[in-house]
Amino acid sequence: MYATGIDIGSTSGEAVILNGNGILAASVVDTGYNSRRAAEAALEKALADSGLKREQIGPIVATGYGRIAIEFADRQVTEISCYAKGMAHIFPDVRTVVDIGGQDSKVIAVGKNGKAMDFAMNDKCAAGTGRFLEVTARALQLGLSDLGGISAQATRDLAISSICTVFAESEVITLVAEGAERADIVAGLHRAIAKRVGAMVKRIGPNPIIAFAGGVAKNEGVKRALERELGISLVIPPEPQIVGALGAALIARDGEG
Amino acid sequence: MKLDFGQILSEAEARPDSLAMNAALRLLHSPRGLQLARWIAPLDPRLPAHFRPSAKFTLELARRLYAEKTEHVVWASVFVPCELLWGLGLMPFYPEVAAAAGAAIGLTPRAIASAAEAGTPVDLCTYHRASFGLEREGFYPSAAAFVSTSHLCTLAGIMLAAEAHRRAKPFRLIDVPPTFDSDSLDYVEAQLQTLVSDLEVATGARYDPDRMREALRLSNAARAFALELNALRVQKPAPLRGGPMLTVLGLGLWILGHRDGVSHFRAWRDYTAERVERRDPEQSNQKIRLFWLHLRPYGESGLIEHLENDLGGVIAFEEHNTLWWDELDEARPLRALAAKILGHPSNGSIERRLAMILDGVKRYECDGVVHFSHWGCRQAAGATRVIRDRLRREGIPMLELDGDCIDPANVQSGPLRTRIEAFVETLV
Ligand code: SF4
Predict the structure, then answer these.
(1) Ligand 1 center to B18 CA (angstroms)
(2) A232 with A106, same domain?
(3) Which residues make beta-bridge pairs with B399?
């Protein structure tokens, strides 16, 4: 049986098909406006990569904020449990997972067996999430993937004081109008996110090994800022975006959670 | 006002959001309608027996508040013991509890909008914002006087004082010290004596020691049943769901000292005992037991229903159903009520609230604790950090949920569901 996990977040959707203990196929698609369609697309893409037919795959666990829309899944499990499980599979010694997603950020304390023990999530608003970066990148006329590289060129510490995404956007526009360098502004934004997420890590209780997952983990600038904030190096899996789907597939395989 | 349901329905077609508001408003201001409802509703076979005393009480109260002797109505904040007002022959009106009832029947979005139109700041607790709007829309009865305590909810005193000022009626504040000793008891008792005299002047009521003693006797009788009810809830599986218990608890603040309070708690005790005896819990799927702190969203968030119906989490007990006071001394009623006020677990040192929570978790054998932090409520949410740290030291997991009991627009169902689901997943 090929256990399958599907993670539908606010910006991207992922599917992972397991073959025993290893990943047979994985896919990433844009969520768009329809979670169910994104789930279908992610699954179809992973199936095409694996060479399997739909009838050949086994139990499916859906996770992510779009999980309730995935009616064809056998079970729905929260992304908290799935990220814990997925990350413990990749890095068995990890006890804390940070995930910065499109519309929420979370910090999860992981037990020895990959079970989520405790968690903290960002408050109601988009501060400290991928959306915060997306909105402010737009204000700077930059693509999301440009941010990490640009922030490395920063020469001075610019503070972004607003934690609200909307206010931070206007703050960025003001800084641009005042002639501030884009690199300094971007580095300031990364520090703002790192402060917010760092506070959640401290709330959960930091551990010596902290793993970073989610699309934002690919942003070197946020990684650096968070490492500075926490005073430790973060471990990042090769595919940080698929950790949730991997955890869901593992839970589907083990029938637990 | 004449009740014309045909007209209400045609208005509702034009403005669907106004249906609940108009129907409720018309009913409240129709003494005949309320009298009829008061007789018919408790006889409705669909109404379970344990809800009948409270239905009768609520409808009778509404009739009296709006139609009869309005000079005997006193608005009070929730921490003013209702026994005092019943014992004086007065009718307590608790705006915060009425706001929760308004939220449960869908009245608060318009009430909150109405308060906003009048310039009420949005960072105030919505119990008070909705109350202000409901008052503005004609839902709240007139009053002869306004009373608040100073402890726990500071906003209540300010809002009631402002309302009293607007209506040119007297406002009295009972100053409650954070310590529970004989000096504090003397101090609060003396204030209650002055308050009684002031209320006599404001309402024309007369202090009758026998009537006051009777109110305390009724309160004690109800308390005895409530203690038995709480003891029954220790059982595993939990005989009751916590969701409805979080909804009816507001009534406990209003009904004690009234004869219907005795029948209300007796009916709930009997109902629970029967469930225990038949081993027939309200919720069959019980995977984990929770202790619930503070309040719940009263509108349709689906949060608690999802927890109890789908996730197998049962709320075994609620902080605010804890009976923190001793039997009231009928021989010294005002001193007994002073002790009830001072002894509130959230008054004074946080250690008192912590002790109550730890006792509750132990007694009801709970696997975890949920704190629902209501927007704008400093007294409840201000302590969550300390509570969380202490519980963690004791190995008791705690989940903090941020939301709003009164304003459905401020309750984000998706994120709240994810949090509660994840919490249950960490516990099973
Ligand atoms: S919820 Fe808090 S702030 Fe609001 S009325 Fe109650 S005690 Fe006061």
Answers:
(1) 27
(2) yes
(3) B370
Q: Are residues A66 and A143 in the same domain?
A: no
Distance in Å, CA B377 to ligand 1 centroid = 5
Given this model, what pLDDT does residue B34 score? 73
Q: What are the angstrom distances between the C-alpha of B58 and each of B11, B21, B36, B42?
A: 27, 18, 13, 11
| Residues in contact with A158: Cβ distance below 8 Å, sequence separation at least 6, in sequence order | A175, A180, A184, A185, A187, A188
Which of ligand 1's atoms lies nearest the C-alpha of B152? 7
- pLDDT value at position B374? 93
The model carries a pTM of 0.89
Q: Is the pLDDT of residue A47 over 60?
A: yes
Do A114 and A222 have their domain in common?
yes
pLDDT score recorded for residue B3: 43
B306 to chain A: which residues are within 8 Å by CB?
A: none
CA–centroid distance, residue B182 to ligand 1 (Å):
28
Residues A170, A53 within the same domain: no
Question: In chain B, which residues have their Cβ closer than 8 Å to the Cβ of A81?
Answer: 422, 425-426
Domain that residue A44 falls in: 1-91+241-257
CB contact under 8 A, B422 and A80: yes
In terms of DSSP bridges, do strands A12-19 and A2-8 run parallel, antiparallel, or are they unpaired?
antiparallel
Number of domains in chain A: 2
**Structural domains of chain B, with CATH:** 210-427 (3.40.50.11900)
CB-side neighbour CA atoms (13 Å) of B86 = 23
Q: Which residues of chain B have a CB within 8 Å of the CB of A257?
A: 425
Q: What local confidence, expressed as pLDDT, does residue B82 receive?
A: 97
Q: Which residues pair with B401 in a beta bridge?
A: B372
Mean pLDDT by 10 residues, chain B (428 residues): 45 52 73 72 83 91 81 94 97 95 90 93 92 93 96 92 95 97 98 98 96 98 98 98 91 94 97 97 96 90 91 97 97 98 95 97 98 87 90 95 91 89 96
The stretches of A23-98 forming alpha helices (DSSP H) are: 35-50, 79-90
- Do A185 and A100 lie in one domain? The reply is yes
Q: Which of A77, A81, A121 sits opposite B419 (nearest CB)?
A: A121
SS3 state of residue B323: coil
Mutation test residue for ligand 1: of B125, B253, B378, the one with most atoms within 8 Å of CB: B125
Q: A190 and A214: one domain?
A: yes
Task: Give yes or no: residues A228 and A246 share one domain.
Answer: no
**What token pair was written down for A123?**
């408050």
Looking at the CA of residue B379, tell me the nearest atom of ligand 1: 2
Q: Which residue of A has its CA nearest to B421?
A: A78
Residue B13's pLDDT is 47
Whether residues A73 and A98 share a domain: the answer is no
Q: Which amino acid appears at position B155 of this protein?
A: L
